[in-house]
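Subject: Sanity check before I submit

Could someone independently write out the structure tokens for this chain? I want to compare against mine line by line before I put it in a report. The sequence has 110 residues.
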Amino acid sequence: FEGDTVLFFTKCYGVEYKLEGKEQISVFTRYGDWVHTNRPIIEGELPKAVSDSLNNSEYKDWELIGESEKMYKLKVKEPLYKIEVQKGGKRHILYFDSNGKIVQRKRIVL
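---
Independent answer below. Compare away.
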């Protein structure tokens, strides 16, 4: 691992590191139990099913903001893809499974 950084929060902590040249953040509980790992990805790295789903959804004309992320979570067998979008005064975080299904939506209050 290159350039390890530990970030402390009240109920958990995160570790920023590079694995195979790609930056990642892993989050753990204060007891050391793994919660999830996030790895920023570029749009071209999204699975075709995720890109197609986004482009055919109600969010197709929303602006992509920030970095998309590939997430590995506890008790979830396959990775999730986190995409943040905005339109006008609305901002949402969308979570897709590898098949392109939106499995969770979070509305961000600006």
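---
OP: Matches mine. For the report I'm noting this point. Strands lie at 2-8, 12-19, 22-29, 34-41, 63-73, 80-87, 90-96, 102-108.
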